[in-house]
Amino acid sequence: MAASEVYILDSHIADFFTKTSVTREVCDVKAVELVGGSITPVPNQGDCSYTVYGGPYSEFAVQFRLKSLLLDLEKAALAQEIHGALVSNVTFHGQLGDADQEEDREPLLVYVLSQHARRPVH
Fold first, then answer.
1. Residue 48's CB: how many other CB atoms inside 10 A?
2. Distances (CA, A) of 51 to 65, 105, 109, 118
3. Measured between alpha carbons, how far is 32 from 62 in angstroms, rounded to an integer?
4. Where is 22: in which H helix or E strand?
5. d(CA 69, CA 55)
6. At 13, is the secondary structure helix, strand, or coil?
7. 30 phi and psi, to 5 degrees?
8. What sections of 8-109 are H helices per DSSP?
9. Among 60-64, 96-100, 104-108, whose mean pLDDT is lowest?
């Protein structure tokens, strides 16, 4: 993005979904199914993923990544082992959608990240 461009969250999210065979609505339903509560898109999205906060206290992040850019779960586990609660626990929850060769669209891989540092205050 050029320095003069304005970041518009919904536009950025819509651009991401042109790369996949899955809709935003399907992802949102899956996120609620996985972590409950309400979901809120992360304010700054990546180009190759769609990420939302969810759960009763927004204590989880659910990330939908293009299949070609899967997360390395072994490295994520190693980072958590080394850095403890500073690193989110990452779990894999399958694939949504199929490859669409004609339109160059990918399925998405689904991950849930626990947000250790975002515990509710009582």
1. 14
2. 8, 18, 12, 16
3. 9
4. none
5. 25
6. helix
7. -65, -40
8. 9-16, 24-35, 73-83
9. 96-100
Burial of 40: CB neighbours in 10 Å, binned 0-12, 13-18, 19+: exposed
Q: What is the largest CA-CA distance in the chain?
A: 52
CATH number for domain 9-114, candidates 3.30.200, 2.30.30, 3.40.50, 1.25.10: 3.30.200
> What is the C-alpha separation between 37 and 57, in angstroms, rounded?
8
Cα 43 to its chain centre, rounded Å, is: 12
Which residues fall within 8 angstroms of residue 72, CB to CB, at 6 or more apart? none
Q: Answer yes or no: are the C-beta atoms of 88 and 77 closer than 8 Å.
A: no
Q: What local confidence, expressed as pLDDT, does residue 121 receive?
A: 41
Give the predicted TM-score (pTM) of the model.
0.85
- Strand ranges (E), the chain: 40-41, 49-54, 60-66, 90-96, 108-114
Beta-strand pair 49-54/60-66:
antiparallel
The DSSP symbol for 115 reads: -
For 120, what's the count of Cα atoms within 13 Å in the CB-facing half-sphere? 7
Contact 62, 39 (CB under 8 A): yes
